[in-house]
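User:
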Amino acid sequence: ILQDDNDIHSNAVTVKGKYRKIHEFYDFHASELKGLESSFQKIFSTSEQDFSRFDDLSNQADFDNAKKILEKLDQLFTAILAVLEQLPLLEVSVTNVLPQKLDSVHEKYQEMIKDGFIVSQMKVEEKTSQMKKELAALQSQLKYLDIRGVNEKIQDIQSRITDIFADFEEERKAKEIYISKQNSLVDSSFSVEKRYARMINLLPKYQN
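Assistant: Predicted structure:
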């Protein structure tokens, strides 16, 4: 029994060390992980209850059940630690960075319309609406600390946003080229008219 007691408490030190590392990381990155606060608080609350239950069982020398609790906690903390470093950047990208970029797309879209550009064919509102739905799904996924495929989806959305801005710029340049050609045509027509007027003015001299 004494050996079991020593072994299980030695393992408990290791598991509690993992828990402490997770808690410290969360506290340090609380602002970036604001959207996941409820998820982490639930983990912390449940873990504290499990540790308390573990202590009770250990004091009762019920090492088998105490060990089961410890193994469950160890698996949980190991899984969390595997994704912990990536969570702040992913969460900020999904909840702040990309939504702000989509707002910028909307503002630019409205500006283009105001400036007289024909942009309906770009289907900007349809595209941004779809991306917002995808971001909402990613937010829900991250609440479970599930990062599978999240970074790839973030990169895909970022690429599509970049493409929309590129389309805006291409449309603006196309209009500038069109206006430039129109101006050149007007200048050319004006020049021809001036030459024609001079020729008409000179005709009486030749007729004399």
